[in-house]
Amino acid sequence: MIDLRLVREDPEAVRASQRLRGDAVEAVDALLHADEARRSAVSAFEALRAEQNQLGKLMPKAAGDEKAALLARTKTLAADVKAAQAAVTEAEQVLRAAQFAIANVVQDGAPGGGEDDYVVLREVGTRPEPADARDHLALGELLGAIDTERGAKVSGARFYYLTGVGALLQLGLLQLGLWQAVEAGFTPVIPPVLVKPESMEGTGFLGSHAAEVYHLPADDLYLVGTSEVPLAAYHKDEILALNGPLRYAGWSSCFRREAGSYGKDTRGIIRVHQFDKVEMFSYCPPEEAAQEHQRLLAWEEEMLGKLELAYRVIDVAAGDLGSSAARKFDCEAWLPTQNRYMEVTSTSNCTTFQARRLNTRYRDADGKPQTVATLNGTLATTRMMVALLEQHQQPDGSVRVPKALQPFVGGRDVLEPVKAGS
User: Fold this and answer.
1) What is the DSSP secondary structure assignment for residue 237, as one 8-state letter?
2) Same domain, yes or no, for 166 and 248?
3) In 313-406, which ranges are continuous DSSP H helix?
4) Residue range 168-174: average pLDDT?
5) Shared-domain flag, residues 33 and 142
6) Which residues, listed in sequence order, are joined to residue 281 by a DSSP beta bridge?
7) pLDDT (tens digit, 9 = 90+) per residue, 254-312?
8) CATH code of the domain containing 261
9) DSSP secondary structure string for all residues of 239-279
10) What is the pLDDT of residues 143-160, one digit of tens each?
């Protein structure tokens, strides 16, 4: 949720952010108007309440016509106070809606534009170009690792089974990521994957991303698309005692409807409805958030180095940030069979935007409660298997296992085909 003080003190900065995102600049003026309307409504209500209290003090001393007049005014005033209180409630609802209509203010330095206007910060590793390359699904079927046909039979399109070395490979990826996080000082967490509406709304996933979210109407609960949601809501309505960043690493299954992605990456397990992920999440003072963001990115790159993957880092453009993020960096791994890079990790600095909605604060050096900053970043996920299989494939259909992953797949250095194929 946008900071009202910033909007009042520097509305042009918020308008500039809206322009970078391609969002409506008029929303800033609507918020300013709603803010003024609420303050006027509160002022009117407080004036009437003050008069009501004053009448209450005069009443015991009054008599005769004076008392009758006071009683008449008291009756009229009671109705006025009730109406004024209702006006405050309505104004607060309008203000809240106006605040929720504005995304987080984009951080200085982030590129403007939409999905295709990212800036490449660096490319790491040599992009493999295997001859007669098989894609990840063909390799997964040869290895007995991925079964999308039975996934579709049982659950529908964009579902799959991971079997044999496929199951071991995913568990290995997640364990490798989780242990890296633990060694870096993160607290490992297995959170709930069903959350209340206020938790989903608090993290910004019921705005433009609402169509992506699975909702269970009978229980009014949402399936999370990332453990960012339950980790952000973990300290809802709390005041934290921070001694440096407070970091969690959440391991969870994730669920996404993939609405609006019809026809995109339908083959294999690139864009699916269910997957697993280890997500880093950090709480820190706002002035430390930019530095913490770089740390999260460095841990993501360390993980990709352990997987021996060629990748690039991009600075995501403002129009592709999502409502909560002020800055986002993606790591994209090379896909030989598609001659392109594919996102495998993402890290976002959400500044105080989520914490303001969730009422999560910390005490500053003077002991005064302040809104905390929140950040998140992917450390390991099912999709990494796509790049791992394609980049490490060998001509016979076998796949080399990066050294760091070998202990998690029974010590194998190569995954061998179990089905005949070419």
Assistant:
1) T
2) yes
3) 353-358, 384-391
4) 97
5) no
6) 248, 376
7) 999 986 666 667 899 999 999 999 999 999 999 999 999 999 999 999 999 999 999 99
8) 3.30.930.10
9) EE--SS-EEEEEEEEEE---TT-TTSS-STTSS-SEEEEEE
10) 999 999 999 999 999 999
Cα 288 → chain centroid: 19
Helices (H) and strands (E) in the chain, counts: 12, 18
pLDDT at position 69: 78
Q: Do residues 191 and 253 share a domain?
A: yes
- Assess whether 243 and 332 both reside in one domain: yes
Same domain, 154 and 294: yes
Closest residue by Cα to residue 186 from 324, 329, 328, 295: 295
| 125 phi and psi angles, rounded to 5 deg | 85, 165
CA-based end-to-end distance of the chain: 53
Query: Which residues are known to be catalytic?
Result: 256, 271, 343, 346, 383
Nearest to 114 by CA among 244, 23, 238: 23
What domain count does the chain have? Answer: 2
What's the pLDDT score for residue 76? 82
For the question of whether the overall pTM of this predicted structure is more than 0.85, the answer is yes
Q: Return the pLDDT at 148.
A: 96
- The DSSP letter of residue 393 is B
Q: Is the pLDDT of residue 420 over 60?
A: no
Q: Which H helix or E strand runs over 182?
A: helix 165-183
Residue 119 three-state SS? strand
Q: Give the Cα separation of 71 and 89 in Å (integer).
A: 27
Residue 59: per-residue pLDDT: 66
Q: Whole-angstrom Cα distance, residue 107 to residue 331?
A: 19
Angstrom distance (rounded) from CA 63 to CA 70: 9
Relative to beta strand 239-240, strand 361-363 is parallel
Q: What is the pLDDT of residue 419?
A: 61
What's the rounded Cα separation, in Å, for the pair 326 and 308? 30
Q: In which domain, by residue range, is 169 found?
A: 119-415
Position of tokens 């008029």?
26
381 Cβ contact list (under 8 Å, min separation 6)? 173, 275, 276, 277, 278, 344, 345
d(CA 136, CA 77): 74
Q: Are 143 and 401 in contact (CB under 8 A)?
A: no
Concatenated DSSP letters of 2-67: --HHHHHH-HHHHHHHHHHHT--THHHHHHHHHHHHHHHHHHHHHHHHHHHHHHHHHGGG--HHHH
% pLDDT > 90, the chain: 84
